[in-house]
Amino acid sequence: MFRRQGIRSLCCAALTAAAVGFSALVSAEEVKIGFLVKQPEEPWFQTEWAFAEKAAKEHGFTLLKIAVPDGEKTLAAIDSLAANGAKGFVICPPDVALGPAIVAKSRFNNLKVMAVDDRFVDANGEFMEEVPYLGMAAFEVGQKQGAAMAEEAKRRGWNWDETYAVINTYNELDTGKKRTDGSVDALIKAGFPEDHILYTPQKTLDVPGSMNATTSALVKLPRNAKNLIIGGMNDNTVLGGVRATESAGFSAENVIGIGINGTDAIGELKKDNSGFYGSMLPSPHIEGYETARMMYEWVTTGKEPPKYTAMDEVTLITRDNFQQELEKIGLWK
Ligand code: FCA
Known about the structure:
With 333 residues, the chain is an alpha/beta fold. The protein has helices at residues 2-28, 43-59, 71-83, 99-108, 138-155, 174-189, 207-218, 235-247, 266-270, 284-301, 322-328; strands at residues 32-37, 62-67, 88-92, 112-116, 133-136, 163-169, 197-201, 227-231, 255-260, 276-281, 308-311, 315-318. The chain has a six-stranded parallel sheet with strand order 2-1-3-4-5-11, with helices on both faces. α2 (43-59) packs across α10, α3 runs parallel beside α4 (99-108) and α5 packs parallel to α6 (174-189). The chain is elongated. The N and C termini lie far apart (73 Å). Alpha-D-fucopyranose is lined by residues 42, 44, 92, 117-118, 136, 175, 205, 234, 260-261.
């Protein structure tokens, strides 16, 4: 009897030791998460990466940051993530229509996928609602941008008769269209004359793209156009527009450009003055951190991120407050 019990407790001890050893092995297994972005040159995405990295350090996983400027690179990146043992990834795709291909490739490789900023669409142009997404409440943020532009124009005592708005559009991207639609909606609500709004499409989503778009609109302005409002879906789409107004001879006091992102306007706001008045700063730090953390939680506990999360908090940063506002969220370098 005594002997049997002795054997039993020996067995138990051995089993416990094995279990502890096994769980130590499991917990020591490195969790790898990818974070793929379409435009790594934009400080917006660098900021998301930096805060995703912070989440990785705090939660103990490895972040694999990959630039995916086109479809080919995107699909190759997913294969390489799988080959490297990643379990899932967050992505801002170079083209939202790649959604079905990205999902198919991820399934094939047994990887979980979540979209950030730019939401996947299917072959019919409908949102792929089954893919978790976190991004900006685009129309509302655009409205705040438009309201801020109208308010500054009023503060400067501008007469609407001699004021025109040039809106650089990028309607291929839903978040882009909604932002400029929201902006125009707010301008009109503030009394801005609808027939003084010129829409001009951008071919590319960068400073040269917006500079070209605005330049082609400026030549259509009537002779009495004295003051200009420059709009667009992010900082780069407004920065190029402002550059175009400078080339056309408009001085800073006659131009109000307000971007969206904040992160990509820091260099511009450090200049004493320019037609680039300010930017609507959302929460790139939270977006980067939270999406990476949610993906980590998904692959380690099975808890799927919410299908749709919209971030609507924005702060207008101008030359007067940008340093304090960026410091508040740990974005001042
Ligand atoms: C899009 C834009 C980025 C940023 C992001 C939130 O991806 O291209 O500049 O505004 O949405």
